[in-house]
User: What shape does this take?
Amino acid sequence: MTDRFDIVVVGGGHAGIEAAHAAAKLGCRTALLTMDPQAVGRLSCNPAMGGLGKGHLVREIDAMGGLQARATDAAGIQFRLLNRSKGPAVRAPRVQLDKDLYPTWMAGALARVENLVVIPGTGGEIHTSGGRVSAITTEDGVRLECRALVLTTGTFLNGVMHCGLVQTKGGRVGEQPSERLADSFLALGLETSRLKTGTPARLRKSSIDFSKCDVQPGDDPAPPMSIRTRSLDVEQVCCWLTRTTERTHDIIRGNLDKSPMYTGRIEGVGPRYCPSIEDKIVRFEDRTSHQIFLEPESRGGDTIYPNGVSTSLPADVQEAFLHTVPGLENCEFVRHGYAVEYTCVPPHQLRHTLEVRDVPGLYLAGQINGTSGYEEAAGQGLMAGINAALACKNEEPLLLGRGEAYLAVMIDDLLSKNHREPYRLFTSRAEFRLLLRCDNADLRLASHACRVGLIDERELEQVAALREASRAEAERLASTPLRHSDADWNAAAEAGIERPAKMSMLGQIMSRPEIGLDTYERILGPIERHFDDEYWHQRYREQVEIEVTYAGYFEKQARQVERIRQMDEERVPVDMDYDAIASLRTEARRALERFRPETVGQASRLAGVNPADVDVLLVALRRWKDRVSLKVGS
Amino acid sequence: MARAVSSESGSDIVVARATAAGQAPVAIVRASGPDLDAFLERLFKPSSSARPEPGRLVLGRLADAEGEFDEALAVLWKAPHSYTGEDVVEFHTHGSPAIVGRLLEACVAAGARIARPGEFTRRAYSNGRMDLAQAEAVCDLIASQTEAAGRAALAQLSGGLSATLHAIRDALVPVVAELEAHIDFPDEGLETATRERIGAAIDDCACRVRSLIESSTRGMRLKDGARVVLAGPPNAGKSSLFNLLLRRERALVTPHAGTTRDTIEADIDLAGVPVTLVDTAGLRDDAEEIEAMGIGRARAELAGADLTLFLADSSRPDDALAEYALHGAVPHVLVFTKTDLPDSREPNVARGPGCRRVVRISCETKEGVGELETAILEAIGASGEDAGALVTSRRHVHALAESVASLQRAGEGVASSLSPEFIVVDLTEAVASLDLITGRGELDEDVLDAIFSTFCLGK
Assistant: This one.
């Protein structure tokens, strides 16, 4: 049995959904191969989306026409905006999700996408023809021919689960791993490695005494995840907070010999940012207590996700130590925590399009690239899907700059760093963090989204109008001299604004973060209204305020973005012969050979490559170009 | 945040001295970048009002924000007809470190940055101004220069600068880590970072960088030396003092005639600092033609000196008044000579604004000579003990100054309760400036390491 597609996406997780959705939206005949078509976008670990860095990514996916943010708003049961007290660049939405509703919404959304079929099955063997990917056979023997293949296998590639010293094959509890696909990678000559992640137990909600816990409510009104969601009419649930005790720690310490981590059973490397509870207790031995967030997994269901106690200790130890935690004394286990080890493909083998450098037509996204997180997976899926589709259509790839999007920061980091642990986004990874805000994701990305065909012209025009109008107003305000009446200044004094000693511009006063547009308007009346629609008016006000307040910082970062953009536009051929460049230092040569940077900018960001090496590389490039032009000339 | 943004790119103006550092009659300072017309106009005032032609040397005066400071030749080559293929400006100035230093400062103030080794050459081949064979040669040259620079840097850094800079960086990384932890992990219940503690840590680092900058005056004197000119009216005792200073250092002296008949130079080692002494013609107004030319050169020497010893006969101090009034603004030590003469008296002379010290000496009895030497070392900023870390490069001083400026902004941000991500911007720049000197990098990874080893995270 054979079927023919432009693009086949293997894996219906967060990466696969966005890849298939984007590819189909771009007009490619697309198949999504997944084990259970009704369970796409499962929340295998915590029932939450967003947070710092991650929320930024979801907003960008949203701006690019992706599904994750809209699904989050549809399935959200608690909404918060983190870091409200800090500046706009580091505020981010975080949403607790209903883990049953989310996949249902996703399955429904995918069913409505033209050009997309969802096929039940497990990926088996990858076929190539003339070095290019040509087809994939499922484990059931169905052959799907394609021009591009996007693999988003998550933790399923040779997945092994550990609960205590008991090992089970599988990528998620109760589900089989993909082993034949893993063999395919070896046949393609790709380097692979093993990573590890873990998930805590699930507890029965009705068995927990919440009176011993602190309550964590959502924000009111609920801040939506999607920039397209104008308001949310949702009844929110709360989360709870409790803490481990010294007795908890004693029990864990006494049972470390039963942990696969501490007995060498797990070879994969786990993340430092999401350590197991046994890790936390060993590494921070003087801490007498650790936080545990109790997060409902759904609105009406009876399960709780205890966030902060991921573990691979045996089931009886898990029960013993959690029963020492206030509120959890009598808690019942729905499921025990476990660790899972899986195969990934170190991402230095990829191009920025997420295509495997040496296997044209094969794209990888999500945990297979050594990342962690639903948001990171979806972001890569989106970019892989877009670029696979653009390649099928013989169009220019979509390559974003580090100064434009967290999507680009993530992909460039993946391709340019040595990874010791699953990669997760932090805002600190973005050198232009002040520019890459949740509030302006669509302002940054709408033109790209429209160019590739993921949003229409009308939407782009609306966003462009907001950008132009708010910039113009911010500039006007910044250069407005303060020449007000004493009455104005008396009103200002009440708002806590001192009259400046000498003549100054409004922008100078507004550059103090505590003085917002509201204060200004209380004194001088409302700013001009540019948009009749209240949603766009509020966004306009927000952009004006942010632009005026932080103008100095933004200009500085924008200049730096311009500098690296030039370096990032200088292309380096992937088949560059670094051995032939005699003057390269050995350390630099090794780094360049391993990572095969696609641009001079990327080369300059590699560990082991210093500015002088970049100079040497530039000479070699010049020579290489001369040779190429000579060949073309003769 | 934490990745330092490289300031290197082909679009900015770079400047460097093109002739070897140290004492030479003429120094060449070269700048390259896009469109240097405005740059040149800001720094150089041609003597003639005619518009200078590209590729032609023009006489004029160098100027910075404080005013004109030297006579010089300048030439502008327009892109692509230049060494680098960009606009190139060369200034030919007097060779004193003081002048070259001031010119480099002025160039930086006008928007240039100090070039890295090999950067002009790199621009040349990037812009297609070299053929293949040349490019190959340049490659090796850059590699060897880097190596030489590396060895030089190593030699310098082993003197304690490296350890000092690493210690400062190691003190800044936890500060950045703490701020970043509060940004990226708001739900972890971290202890609140107190403004006072963060502010104090930043101030402390700023102080440490500042004291390194202060060491640079002595460091650069040790490396570059100083040009000290003896000036004053005829018969004030200039040549006697010149010979006296030489005699004391006879073993180390290589006296040679200057390029002009009437100015004599000799190098001496003054407490480890290479000093070029310049004896000049006596200054007076009523000289006949040839002597007048010598006096003209003497006055030019004064302008290019790091320090002038202005001599006046203490038995006839009034002879010196007119000339002293003319030259009192240049950095100088006022030296009253011939204190052994019976009619030597305590002269009542108003000190010029450039006066660093007044010393009374006798070349006969050698009274006051030791005091004069101390005064010279102090006046050229070369006195004091080596405190281990010593900064000897102008490029390093610039990097350190930028680091201090960034630290100051960060400190102000902390004091005014600015949100941490803005403070991190300045701290990152401060560290990036230090990393320019030590060649370290990967601040983002260092910060993540510090975050995860310091804070127990993992919600």
